[in-house]
Amino acid sequence: MDIKEIQNLIKFVSKSEVAEVNLKLKDFEIKIKNIGGQSVTYTPQPMPAVQMPVAPQPSAAAPAAPTAEKPAAEEDNSKYITVKSPMIGTFYRSSGPGKDPFVSVGDNVNVGSVLCIVEAMKLFNEIESEVSGKIVKILVDDASPIEYDQPLFLIDPS
Questions:
Q1: Which residues contact 50 (CB under 8 A, 6 or more apart)?
Q2: Fold of 75-156
Q3: Which of 14, 35, 62, 153 is an S-S bond match for 83, by CB 3.0 to 4.6 Å?
């Protein structure tokens, strides 16, 4: 059972009037509880604006240089495939502390290769590559919290 099937099961249970579902398979057991039909919502709290000090510009030509470099960097990344997080959780590069990471920059990966683990609600979900290619950049630090659809890796498919 993969993560998409688990997510679909959770959605089904939350929409139904079932109080609890227990699913036992050979490798694992899943228990999903529907808490009294109450919906849980997340409301982001506004963050206070932090004003960064601005350094005085020595000449008028200086501001043009960073803007010229920025599009070039975006163009370089456009030829890569971005692997994004399918869920909110904690990003782990290896299967445990002290173990080798699943992938490193420069590694070649195939479709189905495990790239990382995302821990969500005490479940460890392996994130697999959907493309073959070479890992160009790892965009997240190990053991960092991540958001849904957050870029995790850049892969060069060529």
A1: none
A2: OB fold (Dihydrolipoamide Acetyltransferase, E2P) (2.40.50)
A3: 153
Q: CA gyration radius for the chain?
A: 21
For all residues of the chain together, what is the average pLDDT?
A: 78
Model pLDDT for residues 82-111, shown as the tens digit of each residue: 999 999 999 999 988 889 999 999 999 999
Contacts of 90 (CB under 8 A, 6+ apart): 118, 119, 120, 143, 144, 145, 146
93 and 142 in contact (C-beta within 8 Å)? yes
Question: What are the residue boundaries of the structural domains of the chain, listed by start?
Answer: 3-33, 75-156
User: Any idea which residue has 């890569």 for tokens?
Assistant: 80
What sections of 17-146 are H helices per DSSP? 64-78
Query: Nearest to residue 129, comparing CAs of 147, 110, 146, 145?
Result: 110
The pTM score is 0.53
Does the CA dihedral 91-94-98-100 come out positive or negative? negative
Question: In this model, does residue 54 exceed pLDDT 70?
Answer: no
- Cα angle 66, 72, 77 (rounded to 5 degrees) comes to 125
DSSP lists the bridge partners of residue 114 as 128
Cβ neighbours of 138 (radius 10 Å): 19
